[in-house]
Design goal:
Blueprint: E1 2-6, H1 10-21, E2 25-29, H2 33-40, H3 51-60, E3 64-67, H4 70-75, E4 79-82, H5 97-112, E5 117-121, H6 129-139, E6 149-153, H7 163-168, E7 173-177, H8 180-189, E8 197-200, H9 202-233, H10 237-245, H11 266-279, H12 285-309, E9 316-320, H13 336-345, E10 349-353, H14 358-362, E11 369-370, H15 374-378, E12 383-386, H16 391-394, E13 408-411, E14 426-429
Parallel strand pairs: 1-2, 1-4, 2-3, 4-5, 5-6, 7-8, 9-10, 9-12, 10-11, 12-13, 13-14
Antiparallel strand pairs: 6-7
The structure holds uridine-5'-diphosphate-glucuronic acid.
Amino acid sequence: MKISVIGTGYVGLVSGVGFAKHGHEVTCVDIDEDIVQSINEAIPPIYEEGLEELLEKVIDSGRLKATTDLKEAVKKTDITFICVGTPSEEDGGIDTSAIESAAEDVSQALNEKTGYHVVVVKSTVTPGTTDRLVKPILESGGKKVGDDFGLGMNPEFLREGVALNDFLDPDRIVIGGWDEKSRKTIEDVYESFEAPKLVTDIRTAEMIKYTSNALLATKISFANEMSRICEEVGIDVYDVMDGVGLDHRIKRDFLNAGPGFGGSCFPKDVKAIKNLAQKMGIETKLLEAILSINDEQPIHTVELLEEELGNLKGKKVTVLGLTFKGGTDDIRETRALPIVKSLLEKGADVTGYDPKGMENFAELIDGINYAESIEEALIDAEACIIQNDWEEFSELEGEDFEVMKDKIVLDGRRVLDEGALDEDIKYLSIGKGQLD
Ligand code: UGA
């Protein structure tokens, strides 16, 4: 099929490249000429594992190209996926301006086009957005959904860092469609994908996305709340969750306590669905608790360090891991920020290190030092906090901490093998109490 994809952020580009791998002819659209040029030169503007290799393949084979000309792209294709960002607004609601502007351009293209076309929203939008907001804009040129064009909503479930793999080998594909013809066209796009497909109406598809992310965030905040109890009882929440997670109805995934969840999705999506509920007069006690537990965890992380180190004033503390998780340069909502802020407030002398996120992090906050390597970051440190789960942190061994002044290591993401560390290292972690 001929597919156009609007927006070349990590969702748009990964989807475009993934569709091309499945044999479709893809045109990626972006307003940024530099991004378009870079894609056409097979240089991905974002970092995602495996993306560069696959982009090169699909560019070389002629199955993917990029353009700034949205109208032409829509006119020459059978189906358009809108993959633009929907960032948070001040009140937690979503900013739909990018999606509205894309829909306006698509509407003009539809008017100039003969033949059937399907428009699919892939951006994360609150239930009702596609049919109440996007549909009228698409119809503003005179064409009518159902008669002249199709409409759908197809949420993405991609994790940053492994997005390509998640796209090519998904747990499920959710296809929300306005009518039978729209749904059938979207199903055709995914015909060669092995995953189970759930075909539904548009609002259900929109809600599946929010409910999935809110539930995953719930699991994390729940694990964090349980971790506080475990710390006091003198046991390890990870052992507890190993036992809990063996129940097939629960599963062990996303029950890892730590400094909390960050990223461009969980915080934004929980806030957005909470905001929608409140606008409709629905109380959201659970969603509020998820967010407030998540806000407390980074502060608690620093307090755990304080319990061991005492007053942090003038103490050299290293934070390993500045991005919201390993495998990405993304610092959006990273828990490293509240951790570093709290350390600075308490007078600590902070050094940060991250394999990919230092430049981005430096734009968020002043007043910390950066190191070129883990070793440099640890030299003379009086304590270190591991904030994310980069693989190179999990490879650290006892001797790597020898350069520290005081070997106090707070492993926020349980990446180290505690048993393999030398005895003179004081190993601390979140959710693990000491038996009295
Ligand atoms: C998340 C979802 O996992 C994807 O399914 C979804 O498509 C995506 O949001 C989205 O809406 O676009 P992502 O934000 O890339 O993906 O990252 P995750 O791997 O889910 O991690 C999110 C945060 O939760 C990270 O800060 C991570 O460290 C934290 N986390 C995760 C925990 O604190 N504990 C856990 O047990 C798991």
